[in-house]
Amino acid sequence: MKHILVLILFLSIGACGGSDGPTNPGGDPPGGNDPPGGNDPPSQSDNTVSLTATTFDPSQITVSVGESVTWNNATATDHTITPDGHSEWSRVQTAQTGQALQVSFPTAGTYDYFCEFHAGMSGQVTVQ
Predict the structure, then answer these.
(1) Peptide bond preceding 58: is omega within 30 degrees of 0, i.e. cis?
(2) Please, which residues have CB within 8 angstroms of residue 65's CB and are 6 or more apart in sequence?
């Protein structure tokens, strides 16, 4: 009997619950058709480069002066982010499996880079 009363109480409280946010009786959720965070792919504005088995994706990225680029290695292979002849950016970094590396770019210019472990794996950062 006690279990039935608890169940009835639980169901009646759940039936009285409100919504988690504002509602729009007209149909579309407030702010448009897409939910916050949407299902759209991440834009390049997040300044992230994914490391695949043999490529940087995207291989070319443009950022503003003072912004950073993050290289995210979700592969099972280590990679390097090696500057290709830049005095402003000269530190070689190794991205191990599961690691993210970040470099800030305080000066406008075009910065080429490559992976020392994988021939042909290269990319470019343009800083405007």
Answers:
(1) yes
(2) 105, 106, 107, 108, 127, 128
Place of tokens 């950016």: 89
CB within 8 Å of 102: residues ≥ 6 apart: 68, 69, 70, 71
- Burial letters 98-122, b for 16+ CB under 10 A, else e: eeebebebeeeeebebbbeebeebb
Unique residue bearing structure tokens 């503003």: 64
pLDDT tens for 30-64 read: 333 333 333 343 344 589 999 999 999 999 999 99
**Number of helices (H) and strands (E), helices first, in the chain?**
1, 9
Q: State both tokens at 83.
A: 């500057």
Instruction: Give the pTM.
Output: 0.64
Q: In a 3-state reduction of DSSP, which class is residue 57?
A: strand
